[in-house]
Amino acid sequence: MKLTETIQSGDWKNEKHVPALHVERCCEEGIKIVAEVGEDIAHPNTLEHHISWIKVFVKPEGAKFPIEVGSYEFKAHGEEELFSVPKVTVNVKCPKKATVYALSYCNIHGLWENSVEFEG
Question: What residue segments make up the domains of the chain, in order of their start?
Fold first, then answer.
């Protein structure tokens, strides 16, 4: 089995593991990307069950491959009542149309992905 065959997807509004993605133009050539797990349905955030990381990729129109623009690890899962929130924001210079991808990892339920087309 290939790793790509283990990646799950779904409607992020009905599934708490799929990273929600919001992309908007933030300046003349920049985009603001927000990736969040648990936007509509909260994901547990305990030592036993949590989101370990989110990665964000951008594939500009015409590019052969997506480019990783951010990798975020969440380390606080209830120690001393401190909890990481699996939500990240990244600003990227991207002057053209692009596809934005987010990949998240739940320590119990594995890999999840989402993508959105950004028209510029």
Answer: 1-116
